[in-house]
Amino acid sequence: MKNWQVVFKSDNSHRAEIVKAILDEKELNPVLINKKDSNYHFGLFEICVSPDNVIRALKIIDNEIKFE
Question: What is the pTM of this model?
Answer without folding.
Answer: 0.89
